[in-house]
Amino acid sequence: MKLIIFFFFCLFSVFSYTQDLAILKYKGGGDWYGNPTALPNLIKFCNDNINTKINPKPQTVEVGSSDIFQFPLLHMTGHGNVFFSETDAENLSNYLISGGFLHIDDNYGMEPYVTKELKKVFPDKDLVELPKSHVIFNIEYKFPKGLPKIHEHDGKRPQAFGLFHQNRLILLFTYESDLGDGWEDPEVHNDPPDVRERALKMGTNIVKYAFEN
What we know:
With 213 residues, this protein is of the alpha/beta class. It has seven helices and seven strands, in the order αβαββαβαβββααα. It has one domain (2-212): Rossmann fold. The protein has helices at residues 2-16, 38-49, 86-97, 111-121, 179-183, 186-189, 193-212; strands at 21-25, 59-62, 73-78, 101-106, 128-129, 159-165, 168-175. It has a seven-stranded mixed beta sheet. Helix 2 (38-49) crosses helix 7 and helix 3 (86-97) crosses helix 4. The radius of gyration is 16 Å and the shape is globular.
């Protein structure tokens, strides 16, 4: 009975918290804290351009904590290992199917670990590549070619993968794009203004989609 009450409390929390986002802290030794200036810059861009009122200082929440249910959008990044315990996986699954959204941005090197751990969260779901026509590429800014390429690593094309629940996109995994690097302060990677703008606009699409769907 207590578990049922807790679940419905969490469900209410996701829908009642209107606009905010948080950084997802995970186990395994990967640098979940990477790109420290990225989210503050993305938040400022969203607040300035699509009239959001997001807290300019994103909070950090642990994947196994009930605190994740306070946020309609979680952002996860890093370069290396990711590990979800059974409790972490169950908590994240409940969060996502109750209305939450997770954006995982591979900062180079996360992919083999993330795909393995997501099977703990949803054993019966597979990541599927999103078509260029998906609404997330058009909801505010237009990306007719799909996910933009921000940083070069292995010469591979950028890909956006998703997990769906009842036809709703609940998780976005951006691969070989490195959006977060493009959101960082200009002097961090010395990206040209047009590259940073593309990254910020795609990030804004993600935020808007997560808040409205």
